[in-house]
Please model this.
Amino acid sequence: MKHADFETLLDYLDGKLPDLAGREIADHLRICETCGIEAGKLRKFMEFAETGPLEEVPQADTARLLNIYRPEKRDEKKEPARRFLASLIFDDWQTALNERFLMPDSRQMLYRAGDFEIDLRLNFLSEKCRVEGQVFPDCLAGFAEIYTDAVRHRVAFGADCEFALPPVDCGVYGLRFEIDGVTIEIQSMTLSNT
Model:
C-alpha cells in the first residue's frame, strides 16, 4: 500500500471509513513509520481541537501539522540542481491558417522538459506581447522569468502553478522556469504575431 493521503487519515481517525478500509489503514499504520508519525501528529492536533477552541492549539503544533504533507525539501548537497532545455511539442500556429484567423492576436504553445510540461499563451497587444501560462504537474512554488540582455521580468507562480509575465516589446527572448529545484530554459523564443 502506498502512503495514506491526508483525507484518508482524517476519515480513519474520525471513524468514517468502512470496516475493510479502516482495517487496511490500521495495518498500514503499524508497518509504515512515516504514516504512523503523521497519523500521530494529526491525532494530537484533533485532541487539541476537541478540548477547547481551536485558537488554544499551540502555534508550533499547528505549523507542524500544516507542514507534514508538504514534500521534504531537497538537500542541495545530496542532489545537484537539474537543468533542462524545453522542447516544443505543440504550436497552434502550425495548424491550418483558416483555423488561426479565429484568434489572430494570440498563440498557444506546449513545451516539455523532463517530467514537466509548460503551457504557454502569447497575447499580442499592439507592439507588445504578454506571456502567460501554467506548469504541469502542479508544484508547490516556482518562478517564471523572461529576459534579454536589457530586459528581465520575474514573477512567482500563483495558484495551480499559473504565471503571467508583464507585457514586453515584440522580439526575441529567453524564458526560464524554476520549479521545485529544477531549472527549465526556453532559449531564443520569438515573440511576434507576424
Notes: The CA atoms of residues 93 and 101 lie 10 Å apart. Helices lie at 6-13, 19-31, 33-51, 59-67, 97-100.
